[in-house]
Amino acid sequence: MRTKVRSAGAAPKRRALPPALEANRWKPGQSGNPSGQSGAYGEAISLARQAAPGAMRRLIELMRSEDERVAAVACNAILDRALGKAVAQQPENDSLASRIAKMTPDERARDALELMARARRRIAEYRQTIEHRGEPEPAPESGPEPKSEE
Q1: Would you state the pLDDT for residue 150?
Q2: What's the number of domains the chain is made of?
Q3: 143 occurs within a structural domain
């Protein structure tokens, strides 16, 4: 009898699995635990769901407590579970980018035209200032100056 000699790095051949087992075999790159949760986590969730009706009944009892702090905490807990937790409202971002993002294309075009008109007026004012720089400015026209009381 002769035995085949394999190189040290060669992997042994796998035996063919029955079709029922082959269908359930993990594919390359597939996790054996895709949720990443342990069995204890599922058990804890199950226990919590079983205890939930009793916990809600106790919260309702505490809601009627004489101590206002206890009643307030119980009320908040009941409302959070019944309606969902309130989401803190973010202050509206009033930056130029956010205002432009909220504009329609027509509003953006109109805004750009207004900006260009303002820029043209400023440039014209600047040119006039440069041209008149050498000349003395005319005195402002106003009514008679108030008399000083000494």
Answers
A1: 47
A2: 2
A3: no
Helix (H, G, I), strand (E, B) or coil at 23: helix
> Whole-angstrom Cα distance, residue 52 to residue 50?
6
CA 108 to chain centre: 26
Q: What is the Cα–Cα distance from 137 to 128, expressed in whole angstroms?
A: 12
DSSP conformation class of 30:
-
How many Å apart are CA 98 and CA 84, to the nearest integer? 29
The rounded average pLDDT for each run of 10 residues, N- to C-terminus, in the chain (150 residues) is 63 76 78 78 90 93 94 92 81 78 91 94 88 63 53
Residue identified by tokens 């973010």 is 90
Three-class secondary structure of residue 135 per DSSP: coil
The residue segments making up the domain with residue 52 are 38-84
| Entry pTM | 0.38
Asked if residue 139 belongs to a domain, the reply is: no
C-alpha 16/C-alpha 21 separation (Å) is 10
